[in-house]
Every structure is written in C-alpha cells, then in structure tokens.
Write a structure and sequence with these properties.
The complex is a heterodimer of chains A (345) and B (273). Chain A is an all-alpha fold. Chain A is 75% helix and 2% strand. Chain A has 14 helices and four strands. The chains are: A mainly alpha (345), B alpha/beta (273).
C-alpha cells in the first residue's frame, strides 16, 4: 500500500496524541482513582502553570513518583522492543522475528541471573555489571541462534523459529537451575523471568531514554541500507551496501536495547512482534516511514498493556508479560497460519 | 573505443570445500560488447559471475575493472561501474517497483542526505528504457516474473554502471518475455555502450544476441569467440555431450542450433510415419 506524505504525517500526529492521552490515562487509573482532568491539573500545577490548592498534594506524589515513571518506562520499553522487532524482521527476512521468540531476551536474563548469583553487583562508569552481563548474554544468544538456523545466507522461517525456541527452553532451564542452586536470590530472578514494570523509577526511565533514543537515530540513518538488505543480501552488496558491517551494527544496537529493557523490566514477550508487522502492512516496508510509527505504536501497545495489567483484577496486578503474550501469541499463530496458506496457494 | 578492455581476469582459481570450481581462468572483455557465458550446469558460470560482481571477493590482482584491481574498490565506487542482476530478488518484500529502482541510486547518495531530484529523474529514465514506467507504482510482489526481472534490470541501469552482469535473466520466463528482456538488454548495449555479460542457458538466445560467447566446462573456459566460430557441432558435443544440427535462421542468417535426441531409433520411427 502506498500512503502519501500528508496522510503519513497525519497518522504520526494522531498516534502521538493517542500516546499522550494513554499516558494520562495510565496516571489516572489505579487503586486511588484520580480523574484524567485532575491528572492534567496536577501536572500543570507542578510546573507552576496554574495555581491549585493543597488537596492535590497526595495526588501529586502518586502521579509523579509512582504512576508516571511506570507509564514512561512502559512507553520506552515498548519503543525499544518494537524497534528491535522491526530491525530483526528486516535483517532475518522473517516476519516472525522478535527478541523474545529468538531467545535474545532469555539470553540477557540468563546473563543477568549469573551476575546476580555470583554477586558481582558493581557499578562501573554508571553501568551496572548486571546490565553488562545481560548485554553479553543477548549478543551471544542472537549469534548462536542465527548461526544454527542459517543455510547459506538466509535463515529460513522454520529453522530460525525452531532454533530460537530450543535456545529459549535451554536458557530457561539453566535459569531455573540457577534458581534452585541459590534459593536466596529466587525472588530477584523470578522478576527477571516473568517481567514486571513495578520497579519503575526515573533512573530506569533515564537509562532507557539514553539507550533507545540514540539507537533509534542510528537505525534511522541506516534506513536505506536496511531497505536494500530486505530485498536480498547479494544484491545489497552489489549496490555497495556493506551488508556484514550493517548487520553487525544492528545486532549490537538491538542487543543493547534488549539487554537494557530486560535489565529494568525482565523478560516481556512478543512486544517486538505485533507492532512492526502491523505498521509494515499499513505503511509499507520502507524503514524511513516504518521506524517512527513503530516507535509510537510500540509505546502505545505497551502503555495499553500496562493499563490492562493494573486494572483487570484491580487492586491485584497481572504480570505485564502475561498480557503481552495474551495478544502476542495468537498473533504469532496467525502469522504462521498465513504463511501456511501462502505455501498452499 | 571498442577495443578498450573493460574487464580483465587473470588466473582466477576458486576452491570451495575441496572442490575446484574455477580453474585458472584468464580472459578479457572489451568495452561496449555483448558477451554470453554458456556451459552445462555446474561448469562454474555463476561462480565466475559472482567473482566479477564481488559477491565472492576476488583476491588481489585477479580481476581488473578498467585497469584497476577490483579487490581494492570501495563498495559504492565499484557499484558505480559494475551492476549485477541476480536471478530473482527476495519475494517477501513489498516495495513498489519505483522504490526498488530508486535503490539503484544508493552508491550516489550520502548517508545523511535524501534522494535528490536528479536521482529520481535517473530512476524514472531507467524505468522508461526498460519499459517498466507504466508499472512503477505497483508492488513488486504482484508483478509477473518478466516484469519483475525488468524492474531489477532497471535498478541496475539506475546505477549508471558501464558493465552489466546478469545471471540467467530469462530462465523462468516464457518466450515472449524472454525476447522482451533480451531485446531490452541489446538496446541498452547498443544505445548506451554498456558492456553486457550474461549467463545464459539457451544456446540460440546466446547466438542471436551476443557479439562474443564464452563457453565454460568443468571450471575452465573451453572456448571464447564470435558465435559462428564457437558454436559448432564438435564443440557442443564436447561440452554438452549431445549431437546437434546447426541451421541458419531464415530471417537474419544467424546460427540456429537444434539439439538431437539420443534415441536415434525413436526419431527414425517418427520419420517413417
């Protein structure tokens, strides 16, 4: 489908507005009910734009210290993971590629678990050793999965999925084994494997922003290379695209994003699967247009899932990974089904 | 000008998994001519082409493009001289034909810049000369095999290279589209002086369109020359192991090769009816 410029801009604008409204909703919904209007009033009074009376003080604490950091965390994790999904789908030439399905997330969770159990929780130049181990795990797993699946220059759908799933099981079993070995740390590791946004604070949000925003610019400047690689690596290199260099750069950036997301929220599955795919159906495969929209829609999806996870069984909270998988897994099956129909026809 | 050498290959050897695929290949390709590379399956035609296109990186001082060592080119500089048309492009992508052709301008566009009007104009020109202008807004997935092949050729033309490499451009096409593609290539060759190197399976197509034919067998160049010198019964028997009769095309006098079945009795049987 071809969409002209003004319509594309309109879609981006609307998506942005929807995202802002959803974040306001996320700040309004919870055990203490605050109306969306009050949320707006509180935000405005906080920045001294309007003067409001004292009763909003408790609201202010709830909104600014608990709900907003959490909403922003959801927002940037959604951006990061969806962006990685978009990049993977192009590089692997596979609509089912996603950091969770391919085992990258489990890899970084394992790296983190090892760091926790060995007790190397040090920070060096502002980077925690846990995050570094998570990053290493993410890179190694991606490379191993891709190389197991690769036949020639291309990883076929089935091979990639199977090796990703196998790797996922293998890594999860190691994580479980580590949990059994070190019962003192079980709680911490469970957090990593199930995924949760409950640990949100502004430090986490800043870390994610520092990783996700620059990464998205780098990926954006490689949109032409990624477009050409999607049409075939052999033609890409004959056009002068440095395929291996671009791919390695993308693997490193993707692993960095996944590792950062996992290190603040644990494994949240299937986020990178749905949004990039739907964006490409609507906007077309051009990375230049698909990337900004994937970021916005990924954020919208994640904030929405977070709202659902907190409101369905309120005051209890459903783990966010459960919600994302509830949407993601059926979509995954739908993709498989569509692929099957293509083989028959 | 025609005697200038566009491409020189010196002692090209290639071994993969202890199989010698190319053995000591040396030859010259002159500027502005149409070359066909023929030979049986597994004779190394595609591997030779992939070396020239640098999909398999050649060693130093083996392949010279206009006198310069291909191993030392920057990727984008090389793409400004040599363009390559693979058998098929990945069918899972959903770009429009125009988007695909515009990708041919990649070597000319700097990373932080967008496509300029000149690039768009050249892409449109490439679509006109390959007769794909009418389908420019269609999704390449919905094009027929022949149309898609022409779009990929248009992309190669948009690179504005002087040497065009093609790997069996007509292999999946019916005769109508075969003729259309080959005519397009011949026109590009004549009108714009582009040197064409084309791997072909069909001997008659090769005969009809080429200035020179390269015959390969077992990773070696068996013969290289004008079609009427190279394609005779003896050489074809030697390379392909079949008997052929050669007649002249009644319209233009070019050679026409008719392969003969090995079942002699069968043909006699038909003859007696």
């Amino acid at each position: 489908m071809v969409i002209d410029k003004s319509r594309y801009r309109f879609i981006v604008f609307i998506s942005f507005v929807v995202l802002i409204v959803l974040i306001a909703f996320a700040a309004a919904i919870g055990t203490v009910k605050i109306s969306v209007l009050d949320v707006l009033k509180t935000v405005l009074s906080r920045f001294k734009i309007i003067n409001e009376n004292e009763f909003l003080k408790t609201n202010e604490i709830i909104i600014f210290n608990i709900r907003l950091p959490r909403a922003f965390l959801a927002c940037f994790i959604g951006m990061g993971l969806s962006m990685v999904g978009l990049v993977y789908q192009g590089i692997f030439k596979n609509p089912m590629a996603d950091p969770f399905v391919l085992g990258t997330s489990s890899g970084s969770a394992l790296g983190a678990s090892i760091a926790i159990v060995l007790g190397i929780e040090k920070t060096f130049l502002g980077l925690s050793s846990i995050a570094a181990c998570a990053f290493t795990g993410a890179v190694l797993t991606t490379l191993v999965v891709y190389n197991i699946a690769k036949v020639g220059n291309r990883a076929s759908n089935t091979n990639l999925l199977l090796s990703g799933v196998a790797m996922n099981f293998f890594l999860s079993s190691i994580i479980s084994f580590i949990m059994v070995l070190d019962r003192n740390q079980v709680e911490k590791i469970v957090f990593w494997t199930l995924g949760s946004l409950a640990g949100a604070n502004y430090k986490n949000v800043m870390l994610l922003i520092l990783i996700v925003i620059p990464s998205s610019f780098i990926i954006y400047f490689f949109y032409r290379d990624l477009n050409i690689i999607a049409t075939g690596e052999e033609t890409a290199s004959s056009l002068g695209v440095e395929v291996e260099k671009v791919k390695n750069l993308m693997f490193i950036i993707s692993s960095l994003i996944v590792a950062t997301c996992v290190s603040v929220s644990g494994i949240i599955g299937f986020v990178g699967l749905i949004m990039p795919h739907i964006v490409k159906i609507i906007i077309g495969p051009d990375y230049k247009k698909a990337l900004p929209l994937t970021l916005l829609w990924g954020a919208i999806f994640m904030v929405l899932c977070d709202i659902l996870s907190r409101s369905i069984l309120s005051p209890a909270e459903i783990p966010i990974g459960v919600i994302t998988s509830f949407f993601g897994a059926p979509y995954f099956i739908y993709l498989l089904y569509k692929d099957k129909k293509k083989v028959i026809s | 000008m025609k005697d200038e050498i566009a491409l020189e290959i010196k002692n090209l050897n290639y071994t993969a998994l202890s199989n010698e695929i190319l053995k000591n290949i040396s030859c010259n390709f002159k500027k502005g001519l149409f070359y066909s590379i023929i030979g049986p399956n597994g004779s190394g035609k595609t591997t030779l082409l992939r070396h020239i296109s640098r999909n398999l990186m050649p060693r130093e001082d083996v392949i010279l493009i206009e006198g310069k060592d291909a191993a030392y080119f920057k990727g984008t500089d090389f793409a400004k001289i040599v363009s390559y048309v693979p058998q098929q492009i990945d069918s899972s992508c959903t770009f429009t034909a125009f988007d695909v052709v515009l990708m041919g301008r990649y070597p000319y566009i700097k990373r932080f810049e967008g496509e300029k009007k000149k690039d768009v104009d050249i892409a449109l020109w490439a679509m006109k000369v390959t007769n794909t202008f009418a389908i420019k807004d269609k999704n390449i997935n919905f094009l027929s095999g022949g149309e898609r092949q022409r779009v990929i050729i248009a992309r190669a033309i948009a690179q504005q290279g002087k040497i065009l490499l093609l790997d069996e451009p007509t292999s999946h096409l019916d005769i109508h589209h075969q003729i259309e593609i080959m005519d397009t290539l011949k026109q590009l060759n004549i009108n714009y002086g582009i040197t064409v190197l084309c791997v072909l399976h069909d001997l008659n197509t090769a005969c009809e369109y080429s200035d020179y034919i390269v015959v390969m067998k077992d990773g070696k160049i068996e013969n290289m020359g004008k079609p009427q010198d190279v394609l005779n019964e003896k050489i074809i028997k030697n390379v392909y192991g079949i008997d052929v009769s050669i007649i002249k095309n009644p319209v233009n006098g070019n050679f026409h090769i008719i392969p003969q079945s090995n079942l002699k009795s069968y043909s006699k049987c038909i003859g007696s009816i």
